[in-house]
Amino acid sequence: MSSWVLKPVRAVFRAFVFLFFKIKEPRTIRLVQFVIYACMVGAGHFVVTVQPDVYTEVVGTALVVGFGGSILLGGLLGLIAVLPGIWWLERIAILALWTGLGVFVVVQAALGISIVGLLIAVALAASFVQRWSDITEFDLAPRAS
Fold first, then answer.
1. Lowest-pLDDT choice from 33-37, 94-98, 124-128
2. Helix (H) or strand (E) holding 42
């Protein structure tokens, strides 16, 4: 391949490597959490903007916007906090996500719509329990000595 093609490819690769090593350890866990938080942002945005009729008919628009907003806020705070290791902010994100997912689980159970959706929400909440236990000891990511 000619150098005019490889030069930009190498520059992009170096930029990705540089950004990857800016993420605090353990990088793979943080990247997975980042993807989970991004999915929660998408889910919260959907619930806030679309407001599915199946939920608004049962609990009303205000509660739907409330639990969707809680999921959206938790996802946004998690996105901001997880990669640099701002754990006090990530704990706030997890609390907001637990709140939103808790209301979602109660509504799902009351409606009896989908056991799959209920189990996915419970599994996500459990993953946040695991993340909470990983980050409770510190406010910020520990520095290498």
1. 124-128
2. helix 27-50
- Predicted TM-score (pTM) of the model is 0.82
CA distance 18 to 131: 26
- How many beta carbons lie within 10 A of that of residue 8, not counting itself? 9
Closest CA to 97 of 62, 63, 132: 132
Query: Rounded distance, CA 115 to CA 6, Å?
Result: 50
DSSP code of residue 112: T
- Helix/strand/coil for 80: helix
Could you tell me the two tokens for 87?
Answer: 């754990």
Give buried/exposed letters for 14-30 (b at 16+ CB in 10 A, else e): eeeeeeeeebbeeeeeb
How far apart CA 43 and CA 39 sit, in angstroms, is 6
